[in-house]
Specification:
The protein is α/β, with parallel strands linked by helices. The radius of gyration is 18 Å and the shape is elongated. The chain contains ten helices and seven strands. The strands form two sheets. A five-stranded parallel β-sheet has the order 5-4-1-6-7. A two-stranded antiparallel ribbon has the order 2-3. The protein has two domains: 126 residues, Rossmann fold, CATH 3.40.50; 62 residues.
Length: 204
């Protein structure tokens, strides 16, 4: 019997793309946008694990891109990479009155602050575990154990939804009902949920 849900954020609740942000910043940078995008991807990993704080991360990005613009523009571009995955938001709004919902995400303080302030869907969640605060990241088993202990969840009665297969594999090894989500194929998720939750009210 399913008693709770855990959702990832990126490419599940929200779609995202760093490329337009890096392209915009390139107007004030000395590095080609293709190289700049690779540098952002490289530097964000320790930032999302909590190994780098926000001021240090911004200095690293500024240096890696050869960026000479303002910190305000840099932060804005780094944050404004997200847009709503509307079908998933409709699902969350339908599930929230029926199940406790939680978050488990590899994210950073800049991104978490922005998405919680920008997208109303986050009001439906009772709590979350975030990599930059936990000091560990998916697909490491320890971060799943943190979400279970923090919210007193049983993996055998919890559905976990994530877009990355390694994250799904760890969740399944720990006993979760884990569903691999493709944001370009939302109907497949809905069919799977309908089969697992035949008596649950789901959006059309």
């Amino acid at each position: 019997m399913v008693k709770a849900f855990i959702f990832d954020i990126g490419n599940v609740l929200l779609r995202f793309d760093f490329a337009p942000a890096v392209k915009h910043l390139s107007a004030h940078s000395s590095v080609d946008p293709t190289i700049g995008l690779a540098e952002v991807e490289r530097l964000k990993l320790p930032y999302e694990r909590g190994d780098t704080d926000t001021p240090t991360f911004l200095r690293q990005i500024r240096k890696a891109l050869g960026y000479e613009g303002s910190d305000e523009e840099l932060v804005r571009c780094y944050q404004e990479i997200f847009w709503a995955n509307e079908p998933m938001h409709r699902l969350v709004e339908t599930l929230a009155p029926q199940f406790p919902l939680f978050l488990l995400s590899n994210t950073s303080q800049l991104h978490l602050d922005y998405v919680e302030a920008t997208f109303p869907v986050f009001r439906h969640f009772r709590g979350g575990i975030y990599s930059h605060l936990a000091g560990c990241a998916k697909p490491e088993a320890i971060i799943y154990e943190k979400v279970l202990s923090s919210f007193d969840l049983d993996p055998a009665s919890t559905i976990f939804i994530d877009d990355l297969l390694p994250n799904i594999e760890t969740a399944r090894s720990l006993g979760f009902h884990a569903i691999h989500y493709d944001p370009l194929d939302h109907p497949t998720l809905m069919r799977e949920l309908a089969s697992r939750l035949p008596e649950t009210n789901l959006p059309a």
